Inverse folding.
């Protein structure tokens, strides 16, 4: 069957995927379902207490992420002859017998999972310019407001505000911003570990890096005007 096409007979398996995991269900629930399975396969010699404890431990530890609903379906399908496995138990509900049926079911379940169509892609939300600006502004104003270098998405926000005419600078303001950025960089440089200082020293020699820092500082001054 081509991927993405679900057979009607496989729908109960898909529903069973959503059930209760075997490693999480209570002992009472597990034993109730084992009683159903014993009846289904025609088991007349029921396991004694010790055997039942071994069986329960084997099921929980070997198939922890299968659901109890899957286990019921597995044995039902085996009895219906839908699996290529031996369903003769010879009055012995052993771990080996359980494995034969569950492994046959596992192959079927894997095929069904492959045929489940993927969920539709969620539409990508395109933020408006104002939403982009507001996000960065709130991120700064609601944060520690200590380091202008941490301003998020600065280049994009700066361009938006500049285009909207909300940012304007005199030559003196530009020079002052550059001065503050360079002094801050020198202060940071003197406090850094030598290896970090070497890397940072290379970064602050790049015009693009300094330009972005200046944009961040300019945005901080703009945002602070909204803080009251």
């Amino acid at each position: 069957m081509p991927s993405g096409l679900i057979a009607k007979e496989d729908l109960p398996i898909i529903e069973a995927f959503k059930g209760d995991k075997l490693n999480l269900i209570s002992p009472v629930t597990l034993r109730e379902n084992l009683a159903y399975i014993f009846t289904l396969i025609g088991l007349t010699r029921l396991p004694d207490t010790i055997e039942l404890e071994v069986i329960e431990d084997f099921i929980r530890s070997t198939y922890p992420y299968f659901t109890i609903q899957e286990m019921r379906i597995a044995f039902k399908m085996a009895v219906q002859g839908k699996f290529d496995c031996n369903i003769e138990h010879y009055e012995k509900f052993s771990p080996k017998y359980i494995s034969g049926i569950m492994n046959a079911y596992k192959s079927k379940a894997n095929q069904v999972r492959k045929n489940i169509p993927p969920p539709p892609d969620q539409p990508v939300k395109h933020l408006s310019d104002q939403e982009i600006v507001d996000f960065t502004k709130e991120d700064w104003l609601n944060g520690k407001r200590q380091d202008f270098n941490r301003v998020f998405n600065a280049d994009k926000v700066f361009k938006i505000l500049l285009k909207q005419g909300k940012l304007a600078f005199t030559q003196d303001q530009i020079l002052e911003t550059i001065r503050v950025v360079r002094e801050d960089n020198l202060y940071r440089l003197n406090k850094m570990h030598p290896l970090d200082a070497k890397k940072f020293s290379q970064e602050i020699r790049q015009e693009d890096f300094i330009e972005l820092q200046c944009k961040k500082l300019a945005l901080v001054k703009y945002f602070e005007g909204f803080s009251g």
